[in-house]
Amino acid sequence: MSDSPYNPVVHDCFTNPIHVGDVIGGPTAYFEDQGMRIRLSAGIIDSSIVELRFRAWGCPHIIAAVELFCRQFEGRNVQDLEQFETGPIMQDLAVPIEKTGRILVLEDTIRSLKAAINDHLTIK
Amino acid sequence: MILDLIYLDYAATTPLHPSVAEYMRKVQSEAYFNPASNHAAGRLSLAVVHHAAIELAQLFNVNPERFIWTSGATESNNLAILGAAKQREHRGKHLITMRTEHKAVVDAFLFLEKQGFEVTWLAPNLDGQLPLDLFEAALRDDTQLVSIMHINNEIGTIQDIEKIGSICRKRDITFHVDGAQATGKIAVDLAALPVDLYSMTAHKFYGPKGAGSLYVAEDVLIEPLMFGGNQQHRMRPGTLAVDLIAGLGKAASVAQRKMTDDLKHLSSLKKQLMQGLQGIDGLHINGPSKDGYPGILNVGVEDIEGESLLKALEPLCVATGSACNSQSLEPSYVLRAIGRSDIEAQSAIRFSLGRMTTSDEIDKAVSLYCRAVKRLRSISPGPIL
Asked: Does this complex have an ipTM over 0.85?
């Protein structure tokens, strides 16, 4: 029996985040809304995301969501970022419905990161 | 069973004292009868209830006949506030309370507002105290009821009940005190204090959940909220929960015996906790820095989110905001009322200590708190730009 508001995925991503940090010199996006703050930065080689790092201020669900996003998209192609949807991540983390707005902050940050990556690739 | 928890949430609830549990088991098996029944078995249960009233009365230095048994402080607060306001509607429709009251009081007053009463919601100072000049300025000729909590459940402020009550008495205003956090914790002499109604609940002082009481001073009348029997002079009908009432009485008796030692123990632990936390950069105390109830310490820390802090503090059991509000995403209205911003209020953690808390647990709590703050700051993108 568990009455925890956090499922095991949230627990793992929150307790053992392996993507905390910054990619110095890489494309970076920062977004704040709903009292949440997220910064994402990426290391890009050709069109591959070789490194994803984050910093976040918010509840355990938002920190876990950003960590899970990094785990899922590091090593993939930049174009794959188009596939990001909030629905599956909310399901994986069992995010309470009242926190939907907070997860949308992550979506906005990812959108900003995509734009920053595109700028980065264009300059290159 | 959960064995590794460090429980520092005694303001939310306390464990049953072993002697209370033992006595309740005895009553459950040997005096389970209906105290309203007019036979020997019923009279046995009635005697148990009378004995509990005597034990409670001794704690408050009043007549045992002055207590109404309820299911807890929420019911006691509702019965006191709604019952008194309705009873004295002819006296006026103006009521006064504070913005830092428990939800059980706040919601009762909000209900009365919908019923046509006018409520003045007084703001506390930074320590959570009711400024008496503000209070006196708010009084009107048609003010008929004032309700102020004795010890604040979130920040531990102890209100000056004697002065507030004296002002009320001079003006023939009914004075209710929510004593949920004070009962059995600090000395409360209701024979000496100018208090008309005093709410309490057993589970905050090592008694059972589901048992509470409302003290009603002599000559104070309130209207009942429920109907359906002659029990308790029709003020609160329904079969009395003999085992719970017995537990409440026993807990009151134990509390009276241990109060001085408890306060000494809690003061020492709170000092240790404050000393352990004081080195943390950006830490602030919410509520009184001195003279508050020693069992409660509410602290906040710059640029840390409360829910994440609570999660990072596991296996430490503490509260963000009040326990009754911890499912809410809203920052604590009590902390907002004492002038904290949303961000400051969100980082608030209430440590509440109790009879069983040990010095070793305080050391562990300090260590966990320091580590959690350091870790969350390492994840944070920094202050708001």
From this structure: yes
Answer whether B307 touches A (CB < 8 Å).
yes
Give me chain B's average pLDDT, please.
94
Kindly report the pTM of this predicted structure. Answer: 0.91
- Among B303, B308, B342, the residue with its CB nearest the CB of A63 is B308
Single-letter amino acid, residue B239: T
CATH 3.90.1150.10 fits B6-13+259-378, yes or no: yes
Distance of residue B338 Cα from the nearest chain A Cα, in angstroms: 21
A8-118 fold: Sufe protein. Chain: A (3.90.1010)
Question: Domain spans of chain A?
Answer: 8-118
Strands ordered across the beta sheet of B349-352 = B283-286, B296-301, B349-352
Q: List the catalytic residues of B.
A: 324
Count Cβ–Cβ pairs < 8 Å, chain A vs chain B: 44
Predicted confidence (pLDDT) per residue in B259-270, tens digit: 999 999 999 999
Q: Are A89 and A103 in contact (CB under 8 A)?
A: yes
Residue keyed to tokens 């596991």: B314
* B18-255 is classed CATH 3.40.50.300: no
